[in-house]
Amino acid sequence: MGTVFSFDVRGGEPEAVQAALAEAVAQLHVADQVFSTYREDSQISRLARGRLTVDECDAEVAEVLELCAEAERLSNGWFSTTYAGAIDPTGIVKGWSVERAALRLVEAGATGVSVNGGGDVQMYGVPGPHRPWRVGVSDPLRPGGLAAVVSAAGVDQLAVATSGTGERGRHIVDPSTGHSAVTDLVAVTVVGPRITWADAWATAAFAMGSRQALDWLESLPGIEALLITAGDEVRCTGGLAGRLG
Question: 143: domain CATH number?
Fold first, then answer.
């Protein structure tokens, strides 16, 4: 997936958690082999070339493509399952992989889990008594600074995903043109229960631009968001303040 993953795991029986961590890492490597659009021999690349059918791929391929179709429907087409006319689930695979890895550790008995995949974070439980997980949101206009700190206080699970130009430039595509999205935004951070959806919604919202994105994000249940424009204007959903701290 072309990015770095990190794990912060607390509690649980050490041997069980270590085994689960090894399984989670192995799952990430398999996901990269199956879904990488940079590998000619990956299942998704062969599917895009017509060398495989969905039924001939691992079951996870159909699962991810169904998630992509749902994201495309709920975003009114602003999240796209294709790139340059070919199947490309890149916009959802990373979040889905992070969520799966975190869940594997929870299932093994870990009481606090935070998995970070390239800046997209899924959290479960707590890191310690009376201590919630907290995630800093980078300020794209002030390198090294923070635009906000998101807290998971009071919830059993929380995810934070950011899409923007800060790390990779204008890499997000406008599905209506097939070219890089040109909007007034430099970053969109989405907060919600699941990183699979938070990641997808951040991507779609960035492509929309701030005015349309804010209204759309407000309509999504359980979702809050922070939007930063190139003019250094900060916009946020109505309930975001309750997740900051």
Answer: 3.10.520.10
